[in-house]
Every structure is written in structure tokens, then in C-alpha cells.
Amino acid sequence: MSLDPRVKRFLDILAASQPRRTSETSVAQRRQGLSELLAFGGPPWPMERVEDRVIPGLAGALPVRVYTPPAATDGLLPGLIYFHGGGFVAGSIDTHDPIARALAHGGQCRVVSVGYRLAPEHRFPAAIDDALAATRYLCAHAAEFGIDGARLGICGDSAGGTLVAATCQSFAREGHAPLRVQLLLCPIVDYSRTTASKREFGEGHLVELATLEHDILHYLPPGVGAADPRVSPLNGLAAGDAAPARAPLPAPTPMRTIIHTAACDPLRDEGALYAERLQSLGHDVRYRCHAGMVHLFYGLGGVIPYARTALAEIGLELQAALAAQTP
Prior knowledge:
The protein is α/β, with parallel strands linked by helices. The chain has helices at 5-17, 27-37, 97-107, 126-140, 159-174, 196-201, 209-219, 268-280, 306-323; strands spanning 49-57, 60-68, 77-83, 110-114, 147-157, 181-185, 256-262, 284-290. A hairpin with a 2-residue loop joins strand 1 and strand 2 (60-68). The longest helix is centred in the C-terminal third of the chain and has 18 residues, at 306-323.
């Protein structure tokens, strides 16, 4: 697999300007670095309306930002619950604002971006507890946000994909009314093992193995291992040598799963394997790997022109998945 030339030039510039090793980086520096990186998102997609609100969580109010796409009516629209990436220690509604806008614009849906608690101030399971609480609340109160509850999906990128996968597994096991779609962008679904893509792209390709190790060190409290299915949702679909799941495998639902990975991302193989496992269980899965791209490419439209093309295509997938009423 080879990098897109524009991506390689960007990575070379980035490496020259950020010589510090991830193992020596503080949480504050990790957060600042991600914020600076996402400033390369390019011009934000215009919105009809953007509104900051709060919803109840298990440990207090959770901030959310609601995005209404241009030319939207005041009636009920399809909706998407969005969880940002950042390795559970970084990222916010603000840093990932351009991605949320792109999803609302391309998907022609109202997007609710959720701000969940971060480590090390709030270690596992705070983030997944917040994700479950927020998703349950928004499903039950969709109309209050101008969303048609029968056309509601969920999306997460990177570590946000971890939260989405774990949330959907929990919903399936609880018999919760299915969401229309789960969209995973370069998701982290297995912290517990080293894949071929991690070995090949673990250094010099934006996200590094040292970054993943840095984040999980701050995220997991003593006594919780990386193989826990709530941390590594791939293990919730246990097969072969995978760690045993905590509960029976989720049964197929009408929910569609859309997974996008990047060819030069250390997380590529686990995203592909997650798609394969779900397909083997009879789920409706659409999978695509983007040639020459790195982790988080979709958020770097200011320096990677293809990112905006990819987001537009992802938006069309969302429109299709959210178009029909629940059977």
C-alpha cells in the first residue's frame, strides 16, 4: 500500500514541525495537537442553523450541538448521533465541528454531536456510559430535536467509532428498537492485539502505535484490560482466537452498518475484520477502504482534497440508509 503523494507531503511537513515523541507527550499536548491538526479541515460546510444544548447523562448534563443542513424545513428530518474521535483523552464538539457539519450537509440530516467525558479526568467506563445514556435519550426524545425517530442513525470516528460499535452491540443485546444505520469512520475496534496494518503503518502515518498506547494508558483504570468488549468491540463479536464475548452475539437487525477505513492506517485491518464478522452474522454491511489515505483523512480537507470528495460520497450513503422508514 502506498500513500497518496499529497498525503505524504503533508505528513512530511507535520513530522518536521512536531519532533516530540508521543511517549513524551502530556495529555494537554495531545489535546492541543489534535486541535491544531483538525484546523486543516478546510472551509466549513454552511448550515441553516447550529444550536448548543444539553441533555441528561448519568453523571450530569452532557453538551450537544445540533446541526441543521441548508434549506431544511422546520419539520422532522432524518437524524444522526455523532461521537467524535480523540482516543478518549482528546477531541471535543468544537474540534470535530467541521466533520459534523460535513455529515449534516452531505447526509441532509440533523446531526447531534455529543460531548462525552474524557480521560484521565474520567476513566473508563465514563465515555461508554455517556454514549449509552446520550443515545438512549436522543432515541426517546428525537422529535424534540426535529428528528424523525424512525430515521435515526449513529456515527463515530476513530475512538468515537469504538463508542458507537459498543453502543450498538449493547442495544442489540437489550432488544432496543434498532437505529437505521451505524457509520464507522476509521474506527478503533480492537486495542487488544497487533494486526498486520499496525505493524506496517504503526509509525509515520499520522496515528502511531505509541499514540494508541499513550491514550489507552490514560483511559483504562487498574483492573480493566484492553480485551474488554466495551474497550475493544471486535471482541464482542468473538470468533476464533478472539477473547470471549460477555454476552451472546448480537442478532441481525434492520440496521445497516457502513464502515470506512484508510489503506495506510494502522487501524485498517481491525475495521475490515469488524465488517467481516458482522457480515458473517447476517448483518447488512457496506465496507470501503480508501486507497492512499491515512487515519483521520476525512477531517483534513484543507490539505487533502480527496477528503471532501469522500465525505460527499459518505453523505450519499447516509441519505440512502436514512431514507426508508423502519420496517
